[in-house]
Amino acid sequence: MDHHTLVRTSKRIALALRHRPARFGLAPDPGGWVGVTDLLAALRIDRPTLDAVVAGNDKQRFAVTRDADGVERIRASQGHSYPVDLGLTAQPPPARLYHGTGAAALDSIRATGLNRGGRHHVHLSPDVPTARRVGARRGGPVVVLTVDAAAMARDGHTFYRSANGVWLTDAVPPAYLA
Ligand code: HQG
Asked: Which keywords are on file for this protein (predicted)?
């Protein structure tokens, strides 16, 4: 499959699994899982295409599991905008985490901190290059903020790590941003 088709299909799968399952006639369980067969039918794609997207995904956005009864399910590892319980366990973060964003957002972020907006959590990156890539999605100049995650954890903020390595927290007050 060519790269363009792979990306386009990945975006449709992300839309179906993270944001608008009902639009595709899908009803995820509370953990955000849908049957692989249902997803293939809903998006009218074949299994090799799905496998190529899951395996070829630069960020490992999608996870596939197989139940004891052999039924396969798929979900997005993070990034949902509808209520979903990812079942993640809180864990101690690394001392520093990073957030890449557009320079235009900087004043607002310095004033009110990082908010989760339409997503479940604020997304933080484990390293600067990853944060830079996240910020660059918007086009225009990128700023990478450093989050004092050690101090946040000390002060009682909870952190989760998604299956694909994105760090999640509810909000980052401005005092922890540099
Ligand atoms: C900004 C992609 C003004 C925040 C990425 C960001 C990530 C504020 C935007 C994942 C603000 C929200 C998430 C404040 C936060 N004032 N702007 N107080 N607080 N913001 O897309 O972190 O490709 O919801 O800086 O790789 O950019 O979808 O979050 O620019 O992991 O798998 O509000 O999305 O993953 O934007 O990206 P987003 P994000 P996928």
From this structure: NAD, Transferase
- Ligand 1 atom nearest the C-alpha of 100 is 25
Domain architecture of the chain: domains with CATH: 3-76 (1.10.10.970), 96-176 (3.20.170.30)
Q: How far is the CA of 8 from the centre of ligand 1 (A)?
A: 20
Q: Hey, which of 20, 61, 110, 119 would you mutate to test ligand 1's pocket, going by the most ligand atoms within 8 Å of its Cβ?
A: 119
pTM assigned to the model: 0.84
Indicate whether 175 pLDDT > 90. Answer: yes
pLDDT surpassing 90 at residue 96: yes
Task: Judge whether 99 and 50 are in contact, CB under 8 Å.
Answer: no
Of 12, 99, 115, which is best to mutate to test ligand 1, by the most ligand atoms within 8 angstroms of its C-beta? 115
Q: Do the strands 96-102 and 142-148 form a parallel or antiparallel pair, or are they unpaired?
A: antiparallel
Other CB atoms within 10 Å distance of the CB of residue 141: 11
Give the pLDDT confidence of 27-51 residue by residue, as tens digits: 999 999 999 999 999 999 999 999 9
- Which is it for the CA torsion 20, 25, 29, 32, positive or negative? negative
